[in-house]
Amino acid sequence: MQQGDRRADVLVVGAGPAGSSAAWHLARAGLDVAVLEKARFPREKVCGDGLTPRGVKALADMGVDTTGWVRHRGLRVTGGGQVVEVDWPQLRSWPSHGLIRNRRDLDAGLAAHARGAGARVVEDVTVTAPLLDDAGRVAGVHAEEGPDREPATWRAPLVVSAEGLSGRLGKALGLLRREDRPLGVAVRRYVASPRTDDDYLDISFDLSASGPSADSMPGYGWAFGMGDGTSNVGFGLLDRRRSTGAEPRAVLREWLATLPPEWQLGEEHAVTPLRGAGLPMALHRRPAYTRGLLLAGDAAGTVNPFNGEGISYALETGRMAAEAAARALALPEGPSREAALRRHPVRLREEYGRHHRLGTVFLALLARPDLVRFATAHGLKRPGMVAAALKLMGNLSDGRDGDRFDRAVAVLTRLAPAV
Predict the structure, then answer these.
(1) What is the pLDDT averaged over residues 69-89?
(2) Whole-number Cα distances in Å, 270 to 36, 225, 259, 267
(3) How would you classify the pairing of strands 33-37 and 10-13?
(4) Is the predicted pLDDT of residue 4 greater than 70, yes or no?
(5) Nearest Cα residue to 299 out of 313, 291, 308
(6) CA–CA separation, 147 vs 259, rounded Å?
(7) Which residues pair with 70 in a beta bridge?
(8) In terms of CB atoms within 10 Å, which end of the chain has fewer, N or C?
(9) HSE (CB half, 13 Å, CA atoms) of 54?
(10) 298-309: burial string, b at 16+ Cβ within 10 Å, e else
(11) Could you tell me which residues are beta bridge partners of residue 344?
């Protein structure tokens, strides 16, 4: 590769959902964008693989063809000895279905979609540090390329970090994770199971024979049918600060031991190893812009504290970072461009800050096993209440144009301080 090929209008680091979304929108805006991905596709990514209606809409807005993807109607929630099935809400603002897509296929497909829009997606490039100009502003990145890890320098006036939880570029510029914000952890494996074609995503709060415990809360187990003969089975601890330090793998094992053997969700039916990953929440790395570097997705901590959902917000914040970069590059270099870039973290807080604040309050309540046992035992008997909770937790509503519950949530969200 010639040195001139390592220049772009915008560099995007990471080709997950946030990076590919940013790259697609930048390319569609007519900018020269290069995406630097450390792995080669297809590659593994620890995830529940479920896309809520938020994610479905983000994909539709990008023109991604989801023909043949597995659809799901809603959730089947187990707790307090109760089981209830609840469909995704019928809303004007969002689709009424979700999707299942394993991350090996999803991420590879999104990278190809960005490439089809004109983005350059370069694999097997490990970004090691930001390249700074004399004023300390990001002017590109230092990297290692190929199997021999040859050093290389990529240059661009703007860089989007879609690196995920590691956030190496953000850390290098002093953007450290806030320890007072929730950081969850998830473990999952794929198993060969007859429940592979289930129309509902299973969510369970009864993670032991006695129900929720201090070790398992705030968290839940899941079993999502992949439609290919397997199910994605895992456990998510949504805030490690509030746990007793129990090993998530042990919680998962204890939960699976309570399930009917004919479901075949246990380790003996595993087709992949158990893997884990962090869940960065509540805009925990701030500001999401500094000195020519924009943050998107997990790098900015955009996972929803209510439920651990990250793909939807990665897609959305990738678009927001691209829009901020495109607006800025249309302006002359100087104060006006910088003002446009500084709007990015403000927009993230406006979009998500208040909902995430409510989510952190929810996590504090969910950390009390006695409260969870009471709420699930009584609340799951009322499907309408469950449906309302699903809308709140999934950040799905028509706002002030919706029903009474939507309007009430809109008022509550406006009153809540942003994280």
Answers:
(1) 94
(2) 33, 14, 15, 5
(3) parallel
(4) no
(5) 313
(6) 45
(7) 100
(8) N
(9) 21
(10) bbbbbbbbbbbb
(11) none
Beta pairing, strands 138-145 & 150-155:
antiparallel
pTM > 0.90: yes
Helical segments of 29-102, H only: 53-61
User: pLDDT grade, residue 319 (50/70/90)?
Assistant: very high
**Long-range Cβ contact pairs of 112-115 (< 8 A, separation 24 or more):** 113/20, 113/24, 113/62, 113/63, 113/64, 114/15, 114/20, 114/21, 114/23, 114/24, 114/27, 114/35
Count of C-beta atoms within a 10 Å radius of residue 4: 7
Give the pair of three-digit tokens for residue 238.
């949504």
Tell me how far the alpha carbon of residue 122 is from its chain's centroid.
23
Q: What is the pLDDT of residues 331-381, one digit of tens each?
A: 999 999 999 999 999 999 999 999 999 999 999 999 999 999 888 988 888
Cβ burial of 278 (10 Å; 0-12, 13-18, 19+) is middle
Q: Residue 372's closest CA among 216, 170, 261?
A: 216
Digit-coded pLDDT (tens) for 283-310? 999 899 999 999 999 999 999 999 999 9
In the sheet with 138-145, reading across from the earlier edge strand, the strands are 125-132, 138-145, 150-155
Q: Where are the alpha helices (DSSP H) in 266-382?
A: 311-329, 335-348, 354-366, 369-379
Measured distance CA(277)–CA(342) in Å, rounded: 30
pLDDT in tens, 107-142: 999 999 999 999 999 999 999 999 999 999 999 999
Sign of CA dihedral 376, 378, 379, 382: positive
The pLDDT, as a whole number, for residue 5 is 80
Cα separation, 189 vs 233, in Å, equals 6
How, if at all, do strands 50-51 and 98-100 pair? antiparallel
| pLDDT of res. 77 | 94
Residue-wise burial string across 56-94, b where 16 or more C-beta atoms lie within 10 A, e elsewhere = bbbbeebebeeeebbebbbbbbbbbebebebbbbebeeb
Show the tokens assigned to 99. 């999707």
Choose among 51, 78, 52: nearest CA to 207. 78
Exposed e or buried b for every residue in 222-240, given b needs 16+ CB within 10 A? bbbbbbeebbbbbbbbbbb
